[in-house]
Amino acid sequence: MTVDAAIAEVSIKGNLEQFLIVLSVSLSVATISRIFSWFRQIPYTLLLVIVGLALAFVDIRLVNLSPELILEIFLPPLLFEAAWNIRWRSLKDNLIPVTLFAVIGVVISVLGVAFALSSFTTLSVATALLVGASLAATDPVSVVALFRELGASKRLTIVMEGESLFNDGVAVVAFLLLVGIPLGIEEFSLTTTLVKFFTFVGIGLGVGSIIGFGISYLTQRFDLPLVEQSLTLVSAYGTYLITEELGGSGVIGVVTVGIILGNFGSRIGMNPRTRLLVSEFWDFLAFFVNSIVFLLIGDQINFTSLLDNLDLIIIAIISVLVTRAIVIYGLGNLSNLVSKVKLNFREQTILWWGGLRGSVSIALALSVPVFLSGRQEIIDTVFGVVLFTLLVQGLTTQWFLGKLDLVGDQPLRQEYSELLARRVALKRVLDYLANSDIYQEIDPEFYRYQQGLVKGELQSIEDKIEKLQKDHDNLRSLTIEQLKEQLLDIEADTYAEFIRAGKLNENLSPVLQEIMAKASES
Fold this sequence. Notes:
mainly alpha, single chain, 2 domains, 0% strand
């Protein structure tokens, strides 16, 4: 074995050991957070940050966190999973506030933070703009999980998640446009900046759309769950890399392809079993990646350096909170004037307080060129703000939800959904018993006894459903929503079946969705 080969082998072994240690610690923390009741009050992502901080405090460094690791390995699956699970119909209804927060809101955040830092600290305007761009991207992973667990309104969850999806892309584009200014290789020009911005976004939307619709129509031609699952994974990373290579925004590209495959491709090209398999795969991958990222964020903290730049961090925290308030309350009220979706003061308040910063902000700060003056100040400021939002805002969001009376009826809806599922399952069991020839092979008395048990349990479930519907009228809307989803799935599956059988050459546009939309408007 040559010396180079031996060094490479040692390096691979060392990296694998580091990876296994990180994975073991992160999954242990995530598991403990589910087992012990006290820890369940803390979102597991925040618990991972706390454990990472503890490791950093005793100077245990698990791994070196590079921007490429987050941007190219961790970011695509996180973005794709969020985009896959967001429903376009709900997002479309909330598109005005989401767009205002994600586009104009990012501009306000960048300029507001930059103005405060350049006015009250020694940072130059160009460097302060980079800090503002790094902190413009929100990362509400733990907040959205909390919304769903406590049953916050669907509108609130969609707005928070939709804003995060799109402002990640806008913030990354803004950062890339601004990073050349302090290096002296570019000068700020409004016209040039706008042209570059629309070029970044346009290429991302174009590549994401081509790959998304291409895979959607491709999966109509076959029914191979593992292949279709693999295609979604390839599309996430492939879209990011291709878009970046073409000079566009990989983040925008991944979000676009995720929304298309999650809302269009999964309906026309995947049967229900495959959709469930793919969704579970991405749920696992998001959990896996989040577990590692949030642990490493805490583990990378340098406490001495943070203390040296405490004045920068405090001013940045105040400016982030103030600009976030301007964005949410100002643009939120503007949205209320022009949109059918109305965000009340309580919902705006939780959107303001829940605007956490996370992995994207960290990655952007670390990607600042090493020879740029003020790089360490940028990194420390961003790390300090991220820590504040995760540990202070993140840990108090549940308290805010309770005080603002925004905790919903998720436990009740979950119980109702389980009863509906059990009713369907038991009816199918009865249908099988009634239409099967198995009764000829067993004792008739035993057959009737088993049938009676199922009927008795079914009647008990029917009574519980009827009681819940009587006590809670709002639960009937859940049944209607599930019925609509089933009808849309049946229509899409039928078209895909005809295409696979060669009876159709191209997909037919959905009819039921248009009918339902017209019915809801009338």
